[in-house]
Structure formats: C-alpha cells, structure tokens
Amino acid sequence: MSENKDIKAAVETIDREVEALEMMKKELNDNFTKVLDVIEKCKGRLIITGMGKSGHIGRKIAATLASTGTPSFFVHPGEASHGDLGMLSDDDVVLAISNGGESKELSDILMYCKRYHIPLIAMTKNPDSTLGKAGDYLLKLPDDGEACPLGLAPTSSTTATLVLGDAIAIALMERKGFSETDYKRRHPGGKLGAILCKVSDLMHSGDEMPIVGEDAIMQEALMVMSEKMLGCVGIVDKKGILIGMITDGDLRRWMSPKLIEEKVSTVMTKNPKTIRPDVLASEAVYVMNNTGRGITNLFAVEDGKPVGLIHIHDCLRAGVV
After folding, report:
1. Per residue in 258-291, pLDDT tens?
2. Distance CA 317, CA 321 (A)
C-alpha cells in the first residue's frame, strides 16, 4: 500500500515538473535568440550568479557552458559583495538567476553591472521583479508553482532553470560548430577522455616508428625491432608506401639459422591491416581484437604512407577498451 503511495507521489512530481517544462517551451521567444547573440559576441566570460538553490543550479550551468566552448564561471553573490566583484570585467556578461527575482543578495551585482555597463541577463519567472526590471535581457522561467506539495521547496523551478541552462549551452555549441575534438580538449581525464581519444593521440610517430625499406634483409629488420621494442617492423617501398609488416609471430613461423639472411619482402605479411590516425582509438582496439587471431599493432597511414604505430598496450594504458 505504502509503495503505491510512494510511486504515486513520484509520478505526480514528475508530471508537475514536465508541465513546467512544457510551459517554458511554449513561452520561448526572440529573447532567447538575443541572449545567445550577446553571449556569443562576449569578448570576456559569462559570469553566472544566484543565491540558494538557484546558485546550485547556476554552478552546474556554468560548468556545462565552460566544458562546451563558452568560457564561464560562477560567482556567489555574497562573496561578490566582499571583493569578488573584482572578478568581473567590462568585457563580461552576467547571467543572474532568481526564481522570484527578489533575492536581496543580488543587489550589489545588479548595481555593479549598471554602473559599469556590463550586459545583464535576468533569468526569473517574474519580469516585473527587481531582477526582471534590471536585466537588459530576460529569460522567463515558467510561473507554474512547485512540485512540492507545500508549494515551497524549489523543485519545478530548479528543473526548469537547469533545462534552460542546458538549452543555452546546446544552442551555443551548434552556433559555434563545437566538435568532438573540442570536447576532448576540455575532458582529457577519466572515461570521457578515454572514449574520445584518437589514434593520433596515442600512436608512436617519427623516429619512434620501426620502419625498413623493401630491399633490407632480416638482420636489419631484427635490429630495428629490438631498438624500437614495439614487437613489429613496417616495410615500405621506394615511394614510402607501407607494403608489409613483420611481427614477433612471423619470426616464430620463419625461425631458422638462415633467417637473418632472408629479405624482408620474403618474410613479411603483405598488405597488413592499417588504420587512419584521425579515428577513435577504440576503433583501433576493435580492429586489433577482430582480425583473425588478433593483432597487437596497427600502422596509422595517410595516402598509404605510415605516419604512426599504435600498440594495444598504448590503448590499455589510456583506458581505451
């Protein structure tokens, strides 16, 4: 019985918050585009501020914007009144968040923006509030009450604020043509960094590549393999095109007293599997794991010429699986 009541409360909460989002969607207008324009043209940073729950959501919005190509950070309004106003510059834009628009703690930031002509974006449900009237641009939050049964705890309002912040971030990403590569630069660590890692980020290039010419004998190839310690050597023709590859496995199959006198073109595996340097490292792992008995190295090539070599161990160390 209690479980049904719990589920009923949860469903009602979700429904109320969805209603608020639907209302906000219908109320979107040209002000949203104007806000994007001023943020996109901003030569400084987008400074986000808010008190209480609005502040908590503001921190998340600032983090999302910063990680998706819009320099942004959060300034606590209380700290701003005690010196952190110095973080604002004339080139910045301020986004102030207050559901009701009457947070007294915002007053110093609002006055500072007016005094120094810093563009102010007001995010509030009440256009006639102190914040609503002070803003140069208005982003209206839905005035649909809270999902809280008492109508007091910020619930629907904070959800709407969060979603509107996400909408700003995504719209700016699309305007700027923000790419996976851009995202990777801002997320070098953890699982995201590993997922977005490219072959070119991990491959051995230049003098690190084990390469010999097609006319070389195995003695030379073995010396290069021993020096580079990558378990293979690539064979290139006179134009620098990769035509073959010799691995530890090939050595075992050709093992004989006369091996060092053989020409590399006799021992090599012709037309080895290769990969482009601009693809994700996870694709290299897939190719290595799904090629016959499995391989541990792939040459990265451009126009048939080797530009790098990626080893399965490089991928494992980077967390690419």
Report:
1. 888 889 988 998 989 999 999 988 889 888 888 7
2. 10
Per-residue DSSP letters for 259-270? GGGSBHHHHSEE
CA distances (Å), 184 to each of 23, 65, 196, in order? Answer: 35, 14, 6
DSSP state of 207: G
* Residue 62 vs residues 31, 154, 173: alpha-carbon distances, Å: 20, 19, 14
pLDDT at residue 198, as a whole number = 87
DSSP string covering 102-166, please?
--GGGHHHHHHHHHTT--EEEEES-TTSHHHHH-SEEEEPP-S--SSTTS-SSSHHHHHHHHHHH
Fold exhibited by the domain 199-317: CBS-domain (3.10.580)
- Best CATH choice for the domain 2-178 from the list 3.40.190.10, 3.90.1150.10, 3.40.50.10490, 1.10.760.10: 3.40.50.10490
Strands (E), the chain: 46-50, 72-74, 93-97, 120-124, 137-140, 211-213, 232-236, 242-247, 269-270, 274-275, 297-302, 305-311
Classify 60 as helix, strand or coil.
Answer: helix
Residues in the chain: 321
Mean pLDDT of 41-50: 96
- Give the pLDDT confidence of 101-159 residue by residue, as tens digits: 999 999 999 999 999 999 999 999 999 999 999 999 999 999 888 888 887 788 999 99
pTM as predicted: 0.65
